[in-house]
Amino acid sequence: MKKFLLLFIVVLSFNAFAQSKTVGIKAGYYFPADLKSGMILGFDYGYRIDESVSIMLGTDFYYKSINEDVSYGEAEQLGVKIEQYQHLSQWIGWHLPFTLKARVEIPIQEEAIKPFATAGLGYGFTHISYENLEQKQSASFTYNGFVWQLGGGIMFGLGSKSQLIVEALYNGASFDKDVSETRFTTLNSSGFALRAGINFYLSRY
Predict the structure, then answer these.
(1) Helix (H, G, I), strand (E, B), or coil: what is residue 167?
(2) Under a CB-based contact definition with an 8 Å cutoff, are residues 121 and 145 in contact?
(3) Which pTM does this prediction carry?
(4) Within 10 Å of residue 3's Cβ, how many Cβ atoms?
(5) Which pLDDT score is estimated for 78?
């Protein structure tokens, strides 16, 4: 009985991994509610269930760094004019959600162009840090919680197994953090992302 059960699991696993695999790599700009706008990178990996539906695991990484500098003007060194600066402070923020998502491709007559919609649920982290370099003071905090995503866009055929992706995405990521038994704070990392990238099919459905 155990041998038959093991064989059944192996067959199911083989069938699952035999499906068409899809990989997406994307880059763009993120506009969060309570943070500074900055670059966002995305990566998706999953399986194409049929010609219209894909199930994927995805992650996105937003990062922004802001330095406050003061200029002391030009100085001549070795016959060359060099601008002099001093770092006063540095602000860093990043947001990292992990999601399980579905992508539905909408069939149209033009096969090389495919509109699509995506929806996902997952868990995310937001980290903020600030350092005053002159006064040697620093502070940081991290929020985490559930996230959800809704988006859509267009895929343009490049080759038999590659597509250009252009998409707009809303990332819902408002996190609460307990300060005491009766007090809590909220950080809203939610926002819109506009980005483009490449999608690959590792094996054709």
Answers:
(1) strand
(2) no
(3) 0.79
(4) 7
(5) 62
Give the pLDDT of residue 132.
Answer: 82
Angle at 121 between CA 95 and CA 205, to 5 degrees: 110
| Dist. CA 95–CA 40, nearest whole Å | 9
Cβ burial 27-53 (10 Å sphere, 16+ → b, else e): ebebbbeebeebebbbebebbbeeeee
Residues paired with residue 140 on neighbouring β-strands, in sequence order: 129
Which pLDDT value is given to residue 19?
A: 62
Please, which residues have CB within 8 angstroms of residue 21's CB and are 6 or more apart in sequence? Answer: 45, 46, 47, 48, 201, 202, 203
Assign 18 a pLDDT band (cuts: 50, 70, 90): very low
Beta strand 191-201 pairing with 80-105: unpaired
Q: Compare 191 and 50 and report the one with higher pLDDT.
A: 191
In the block, which residue shows the tokens 């090389």? 112
Backbone angles phi, psi at 13, to 5 degrees: -65, -45
